[in-house]
Write a structure and sequence with these properties.
Distance between the termini: 8 Å
Shape: elongated
Number of helices: 2
Number of strands: 2
Largest sheet: 2 strands, antiparallel
Length: 77
């Protein structure tokens, strides 16, 4: 847990606690990534799975940002 106290002024008793909890990201080997890409490219252009996969990619990107911010702040859970 990271804790920042902003001042020792008794008139300002706000305490800010920042704790990043980022989901884990599964790592896939190159062969699995290549297979997934080939399967994705074989999907029809109007496939609902394309939408779901796009959403999953955005979530992975957001988790990456969360982990970067947590690392910059001193740690992640």
């Amino acid at each position: 847990m990271t804790l920042w106290l902003t001042a020792c002024d008794p008139g300002d008793s706000d305490v800010v606690v920042v704790r990043f909890i980022c989901p884990t990201i599964n790592q896939y080997d190159q062969a699995t990534q290549d297979k997934a890409l080939a399967e994705y490219q074989a999907l029809p252009k109007d496939s609902a799975l394309r939408l779901f996969i796009g959403d999953y990619k955005r979530l992975r990107d957001q988790i990456g940002v969360c982990r970067s911010r947590a690392a910059a702040a001193g740690g992640a859970k």
